[in-house]
Design a protein that fits this description.
The structure is a single chain. The protein is mainly α. The protein is built from 9 helices and no strands. Helix 7 crosses helix 9. The longest helix has 28 residues.
Length: 180
């Protein structure tokens, strides 16, 4: 049986249980190791060994089978949260909530400007819009079922920066153009 070099079913286990996901959202990864099904699946082994990961995979698959709509809804909430906060500031939610929410507003503005940039770029250079926007969409789909954090989205953000700049540029050039 092939063993992937990196395998971590723990984040998928989180998404299958409402209480675990809420506790994870409030307290972080440490709470996962206190969860009985997780502890039972790992036993005394290193969590990333093949046997514990196989058992965690079974727990995750059973969780998805038992609550598919709840798991899907938690994924939607998690991906929305991950895309709308500044990487590295998750702890600010509890310590500096005003700064955290200000950062979220900035991220939403960044994402809206990115969409504007993709629309403008699509009219001018479809291949470039597909490459830059496609990387962000691909990353979003790839990370969708995982209880991810925004740091995993940094490559997507980097691809969106030129698109966002183009969106802001096109917005200002349309506004500053004299009427014909």
């Amino acid at each position: 049986e092939p063993i992937p070099m990196v395998s971590n079913w723990g984040p998928l286990v989180v998404m299958t249980d409402e209480l675990l996901w809420e506790r994870f959202s409030e307290k972080g990864w440490g709470i996962l190791y206190e969860n009985p099904p997780f502890r039972e699946a790992i036993g005394l082994e290193f969590p990333f060994n093949h046997a514990p990961q196989s058992r965690l995979r079974a727990v995750a698959v059973n969780g998805w089978k038992n609550d598919p709509t709840g798991s899907l809804w938690r994924c939607v909430q998690q991906v929305t949260f991950a895309w709308t906060y500044v990487p590295g500031t998750k702890e600010w939610l509890w310590k500096h909530s005003f700064a955290f929410w200000t950062g979220r507003v900035v991220m939403v503005i960044f994402l809206l400007a990115s969409v504007l940039g993709l629309i403008s770029l699509w009219q001018r250079d479809r291949m470039m819009a597909l490459v830059l926007g496609g990387q962000a969409i691909y990353t979003g789909f790839l990370l969708f079922p995982v209880s991810t954090e925004s740091r995993y989205l940094i490559p997507a953000y980097l691809c969106l920066i030129p698109v966002t700049a183009y969106g802001v540029f096109s917005l200002f050039t349309k506004r500053l153009r004299p009427p014909s």
